[in-house]
Design a protein that fits this description.
alpha+beta, 3 domains, four-stranded antiparallel beta sheet, globular, binds pyridoxal-5'-phosphate
């Protein structure tokens, strides 16, 4: 967020924000001459059974592994951790921020539990992450759904429009306590958070934004605005995804809105229910340091953005590949695009995206974020400026080999784009998710699962958007889609009873 314009206020602001108080306090404790006769059992040294850990990680990592409630770090009031949390809240424009050590998955469960302490009616984007659905089950919420717009050709779900949200709130049989939306999407499409917040607020509901992919928003004028400053009440962000902290570290922000006083105690209770009592110090220190870097990263982000413009031009200039994000703005729910994601149409290879993703990794050592039938998605970390010559050369090699193989054999190869069916329509929700999840269940063969009520949340992964929710009727299209994803080279279905989805867990009749 912008620093003050007055020079002396700016200097003192910079002196504060250029520190990482939690990480600094951790470091001071780690280098002190201490003897640890407490958890963690490795005691910060490589003696005895911990020699292997030191060989692998180095001794400093062990000595930084300091447990919670430690004097001088986070015990008592006005601690370095409190200061680090306050600096994070200021950096993202929040009233209050929590460090999360179990990812945005924890933030989503926490948000759902907080809703549950205030009411049960919730309207959720149907393409919610599975962790929010888990939260709905845990909190016993009654979800109504708002469908995102879908690019049918590429099987991509975008975001929702204010009008569709208004209709979904009006259609819910209960009073709606909260709305849950995902923006940016898995493919980098950004929804109009300000307008969506107004619609939720008009209905007396607070807005939860799952911005797992948007922790870098707002840190440069050429990036989309942070949802926290766009009027959302609760915002969840995986700082580990693009913003530079360690895997599993994330943030939950409480916006400075008219709903904040009501939600804050609910969030506090929900945090206690979802956090470990032994939160990992490395993860929290990595958020503190990532925040310090982000607030001062204008030039690195500008360099990264210049590089991305070059990469985009390289892809568009190639004869065979095409960036899908150029078409996103034609969808009426999309108001902006995250430049750090490059969804590339790879149909020219003659293979589906899952097969291409797997071959890129196995044969070329190139790892991309995710795939659909027609696309691979490249993700660039904030402030990074990689080259993609290696990726494009690998794609060319795969395309030429595939062309040669197709010329020799029948064209019914098992991994052509057409083998993954289109994104299926969700079945009707006929039970509350919690009732279905905790009810008596049985396993049935796939052929007998059609028309039965699912007990499980089943999500093609990545990206982890559930295609079936607990309480929803299972339909034929969904079975075929999930089986095809599971059979594809890099596909995986989270929550399935067996890897090939031969059986489904359903509510016992
Ligand atoms: C939209 C969305 N929300 C939440 C999550 C969970 O994030 P994490 O992996 O940090 O737990 C993901 C993960 O991919 C996601 O895509």
């Amino acid at each position: 967020m912008p620093s003050p314009s007055d020079p002396s206020a700016r200097a003192s602001h910079q002196a504060r924000t250029s520190r990482a108080p939690y990480a600094d306090a951790l470091h001071a404790a780690a280098v002190r001459d201490s003897q640890f006769l407490c958890t963690p059992g490795h005691a910060g040294t490589g003696s005895g059974v911990s020699a292997g850990l030191v060989d692998f990680f180095g001794e400093h990592i062990l000595s930084l592994d300091i447990p919670p409630l430690f004097d001088g770090i986070d015990l008592g009031t006005d601690t370095p951790k409190d200061e680090a949390l306050q600096l994070a809240a200021e950096a993202w424009g929040a009233r209050r921020t929590w460090f999360l050590t179990n990812g945005s998955s924890q933030g989503n469960r926490m948000a759902a539990l907080a809703v549950g302490t205030l009411g049960t009616g919730v309207v959720t984007q149907r393409s919610a992450h599975s962790s929010f659905i888990d939260g709905i089950v845990l909190a016993g919420l009654h979800p109504g759904f708002v469908s995102p717009s879908v690019d049918e050709v590429n099987g991509i779900a975008h975001g929702v429009t204010p009008d569709s949200l208004r209709r979904a709130i009006a259609a819910h049989p209960e009073e709606v306590t909260a709305v849950y939306l995902v923006t940016p999407s898995y493919f980098g499409a950004v929804a109009d958070v300000r307008a969506l917040a107004e619609v939720a607020h008009e209905a007396g509901a607070f807005l939860i934004v799952d911005a797992a992919w948007g922790a870098h928003f707002g840190f440069h004028p050429d990036l989309p605005a942070s949802p926290v400053t766009e009027g959302a009440d609760v915002v969840i962000m995986s700082t580990h995804k693009l913003a530079g902290s360690f895997t599993q570290s994330a943030l939950l922000h409480l916006g400075d809105t008219e709903f904040a006083d009501r939600i804050e105690p609910a969030l506090e209770r929900a945090f206690m229910m979802t956090a470990s009592t032994s939160e990992n110090a490395h993860l929290m220190a990595s958020i503190d340091i990532a925040r310090r870097e982000l607030v001062d990263a204008h030039d690195e982000i500008a360099a990264s953005l210049d590089n991305i413009r070059h990469l985009r031009a390289q892809i568009e200039g190639s004869e065979h590949y095409h960036l899908l994000s150029g078409d996103f703005m034609s969808f009426n729910d999309v108001v902006d695009i995250d430049p750090f994601r490059l969804p590339i149409d790879i149909t020219s290879t003659g293979l589906d995206g899952h097969a291409v993703r797997k071959r890129l990794a196995q044969e070329h050592g190139v790892y991309v974020e995710m795939a659909t039938a027609t696309t691979i998605v490249v993700l660039i970390g904030l402030g990074k400026s990689p080259e993609i010559t290696r990726l494009l050369a690998a794609l060319d090699e795969i395309r030429l080999e595939q062309g040669a193989a197709a010329a020799e054999s029948s064209p019914t190869s098992s991994s052509r784009a057409s083998d993954i069916p289109p994104l299926p329509q969700a079945g009707a929700l006929v039970r509350l998710p919690r009732e279905a999840f905790f009810g008596e269940s049985e396993l049935v063969p796939a052929a007998e699962a059609v028309g039965r009520i699912s007990v499980s949340s089943l999500a093609a992964y990545p990206p982890g958007i559930p295609n079936v929710l607990p309480g929803e009727e299972i339909n034929q299209e969904t079975i075929e889609f999930l089986q095809a994803v599971a059979a594809s080279p890099s596909g995986h279905v989270r929550g399935s009873a067996d890897p090939q989805l031969r059986q489904f867990r359903v509510v016992k009749e």
